[in-house]
Fold this sequence. Notes:
The protein has 351 residues and is mainly beta.
Amino acid sequence: MSPAPAVEIGSTDEEDPALLFSQVRSLDRQSDGSIVVVDGLSNEVRIFDRSGRHLSTSGGSGTGPGEFTMANLIVGLPGDSILVHDQILARLSLFRPDGTHERTEQLTALPGFSPLMTPLGLAPDGALVVRGVHDPPPPSFGPGLVEATAYLGDLDEGRMDALSGVPFALGATDEQGQPRPVFPMAVPIQAVSPGGLWVTVPPEPEIKKIGWSGSVERIIRFPDARLALTSEERRGIVAWQRARLTSAQLDGAPEPAVLPSLPAFLHLVSDREGHLWVQESFDNRDPDDWEFGAPRGSAVWRVLSPEGEWLGSVRMPDRFRPMAIGIDWVLGVKTDDLDVEFVRLYGLSRN
């Protein structure tokens, strides 16, 4: 990566709200070099030219056409059209490349699934890939873990079809079936690539590639990545979580489930060429130093070929999270010491 960003977008000046970012959920770069930002706090879709100059703002919080309650950009749409998924309202909104709202479509979940879906990306045939949770929850398939499944959606008809063979662990339950918090955070991690869906479920040190037929095509294991927790460390995590609750919150609150080890991976990103970028977690066993209930990620990312072969490693700038990667660029969010977010574009050289 280039030592300095080619473009930086952001400011602490409240007089220019288009440059104030908070909870950036997704980014994309269009064919002309313009940058699309979905800001989570404002639920706005902001477009900037290739130099970082603000061009337009669309969306915003609300329930009307082109508005959102929890907006997430779907990358990879042909023709530079902008497709935004609303997780709470369970609908899709299509915008023209200049940010003009085109139409909004309601999504209908499969029977037995919650309408609250997490968008993952687009399959090569244009199907929307989302993660859905069974509703009502099925019996636990593991030690207190609740199952979720990835499935595909038809963007024209709003129909959802299950992508078989893609189970995810998503949360935990007590003996009465009530939800329990999980530490370290055990959120399934996925990356949509042209060849299929890459999946890892913390804390397992393996990544699966699921083809679009639903079958497992490859399993990649990182034998040095499993970070087992001792019984004493697990008890310490429970005590740490309970100490953060008020007396009222403690009353009747279930004890958290603690995983047997730290998560092996924190993020997966598939670039435009289908290469998989993998961020491993630090071996940090002090919850006070964690971020969002899990250890911070390493600045070194492993890069795998579309077939899963290790190609090398890339060191990212400190407190920078890549969200979209092209042939010769990396687009992501840099957080400063005051937790202010900046969108940065770096150059990338492939040897």
